[in-house]
Structures are given as structure tokens and as C-alpha cells.
Write a structure and sequence with these properties.
By secondary structure, this protein is α+β, with helices and mostly antiparallel strands. It folds into two domains: 139 residues, 2-Layer Sandwich (Ribosomal Protein S5, domain 2); 114 residues, Alpha-Beta Plaits (2-Layer Sandwich). Helices cover 24% and strands 28% of the residues. It contains seven helices and eleven strands. The strands form two sheets. Strands 1, 2, 3, 4, 5, 6 and 7 form a seven-stranded mixed beta sheet that branches. Strand 2 and strand 3 form a beta hairpin. Bound molecules: cytidine-5'-monophosphate. The site of cytidine-5'-monophosphate has 11 residues, from strand 3 and helix 3.
């Protein structure tokens, strides 16, 4: 029997780059949340590994061992036929392949292999708000993060992650402000507004489409890029405001990927 699994979009609400290791990898401090849009996967037992890809973003997705979901199953010691429905733009700063791989590890009970598949995979093993540090392997749940009504905007360009890191001038930036104990939604947003995505300026320089996406979100309470881009998010007051804003942006930019989403809140109260 096939097992179905959902691989949600990952959003870096903050992404502080706090250093660089001698092997070139960067030290991060990031608050990560997950949305109610994502890819869908199915895995069925089969004598040999197989992968088929469908959905609006299937073009260019490898269907062999180059795909992280294939490698996830191999690391788990399982052969199966995987069907992957790509609903999320890939190489877009919202998880994509990392979330797909984490979903496969989760259903196969092989979470221990996450770090081997990429820096973003460990945080995608759970869909709750988490703080991600180290190069991505050090993840801890964060309490008190409210569900957020966001608009995700991808202007259709691909920013290679190494390139965004390479363009970053200062590598030893301040970590997130350690007051992770917000009393309410307003306090959370006020705090969030004071944090950063250190890759936003390097990714946007030379990619005016990112600036255009951020500008399109100017009606939001806060607009920022996720990951190394090019997807940007805007935070809105409620689901209606997000849905209205998404409709307006999609009308002006019919070629962009635009979605109103709700993020998963913390299951626990504020982390002291
Ligand atoms: O681990 P992953 O394959 O997702 O990373 C892609 C690239 O992004 C790495 O090869 C590296 O250039 C850069 N990266 C980094 N520091 C991190 C994560 C990724 O420099 N913490």
C-alpha cells in the first residue's frame, strides 16, 4: 500500500549569517516556520527504486538518484516507487527538495540521515516553528510563535544558494535577538521587524525581480525574502487581507507564483 506524505513550504522568517567555518559553510541563526502549501509525495513498496514527478513545477526535476527524495530512500535502506507532485517552485528559498527529502525520511523512520542530505533537511523533519543554528543541523522548537497569514511571492528567477552566500560581504553578523518570549501577536511582529535576512541584499543585488517582489508586498506589515531567495513573504493582519493582497499581486504579475498561506503555530507557549 502506498503511503502519502505532505512536504510543506519552509519559510525563513529570519536568516542571520553569524560566521563561516573553515570548510566554507556558513553559520546561521534562523527562525523557520512551515506553511499550508507544499509538495505531495506517495511512496509504494517496489522491487526497485523509481521516481515520477508531476505537478506545475515538475519541469527540470531529476527523476533519478540526483533527486534528494531518491537519496533519502536509499539512505533509509528502502526501495520504492515514489510519486512526487511539485507544487512549489524549486531553488526558491522555501525548502523544495529539502522538504521533500525530509518527508521521505519521516515516513521511513530514517530521520537520522537528514544532515547528510543538506543543511536545510534537519529543520524540515518537523513542521513546527524552530530555531536553526550551526550550518542547519542544530534545530530547537520555539514556543509562542503565532500562526501567520502570509503572502508568498516568487518572481520566477532562480538564485543559486552558493552565489547568494558568496556575494555576502560581512559573514560575522549579529545573531537573532534572544528575546524569544513574545506576549502576543503584536509583540512577535515587532520583534520580527527588528530581525533580518542577511542574504536579502546580496541576493537582490543583480536580481531586480527580488526587489520587485518585495515592492509588490509593500502593503504588508512586514516583507522579507526567505532563504537565499527568490521567494519573498509579506505578513498580513488576517487571512482575508492576505487573500486580497495575493489576488491583487497575481493580477498585476500573472507570471509570478503568488499564494496566500497560513503558517503552523507553535504547539507550546513562549520559550523563555
Ligand atoms: O547543504 P545544501 O546543499 O543545502 O547547501 C547548498 C550550498 O549553500 C552549499 O554548498 C553552500 O555553498 C551553501 N551553504 C552555506 N552554509 C550553509 C548552508 C548552505 O554556505 N549553512
Amino acid at each position: 500500500m502506498a503511503i502519502e506524505v505532505f512536504a510543506p513550504a519552509k519559510i525563513n522568517l529570519t536568516l542571520h549569517v553569524t560566521g563561516q567555518r573553515t570548510d566554507g559553510y556558513h553559520l546561521l541563526d534562523s527562525l523557520v516556520v512551515f506553511a499550508d502549501v507544499g509538495d505531495r509525495l506517495e511512496i509504494a513498496p517496489a522491487p526497485r527504486m523509481g521516481l515520477d514527478v508531476s505537478g506545475p513545477f515538475s519541469v527540470g526535476v531529476p527523476t533519478d538518484e540526483r533527486n534528494l527524495v531518491w537519496r533519502a530512500a536509499v539512505l533509509a535502506g528502502v526501495a520504492g516507487q515514489i510519486s512526487l507532485e511539485k507544487n512549489l517552485p524549486h531553488g526558491a528559498g522555501i525548502g523544495g527538495g529539502s522538504s521533500d527529502a525530509a518527508a521521505i525520511l519521516r515516513v521511513l523512520g530514517a530521520e537520522a540521515h537528514a544532515s547528510a542530505l543538506g543543511a536545510d533537511v534537519p529543520v524540515c523533519l518537523l513542521d513546527i516553528p524552530q530555531r536553526m543554528r550551526g550550518i542547519g543541523e542544530d534545530v530547537t522548537p520555539v514556543g509562542g510563535v503565532p500562526a501567520l497569514d502570509l503572502v508568498l511571492v516568487n518572481p520566477g528567477i532562480h538564485v543559486p544558494t552558493p552565489e547568494a552566500f558568496k556575494r555576502l560581504r560581512t559573514k560575522d553578523n549579529a545573531p537573532m535577538e534572544d528575546r524569544l518570549n513574545w506576549l502576543d501577536h503584536a509583540a512577535f511582529l515587532a520583534w520580527l521587524g527588528e530581525q533580518r535576512n542577511d542574504l536579502q541584499t546580496p541576493a537582490a543585488s543583480g536580481n531586480p525581480a527580488i526587489l520587485a517582489a518585495l515592492k509588490a508586498l509593500k502593503g504588508a506589515k512586514l516583507a522579507r525574502m526567505s532563504g537565499s531567495g527568490s521567494t519573498c513573504f509579506g505578513v498580513y493582519a488576517d487571512a482575508q487581507a492576505a487573500s486580497d493582497a495575493a489576488a491583487g499581486i497575481a493580477k498585476k504579475q500573472p507570471r509570478w507564483w503568488v499564494r496566500a498561506v497560513k503558517t503552523v503555530s507553535s504547539q507550546t507557549g513562549p520559550t523563555s
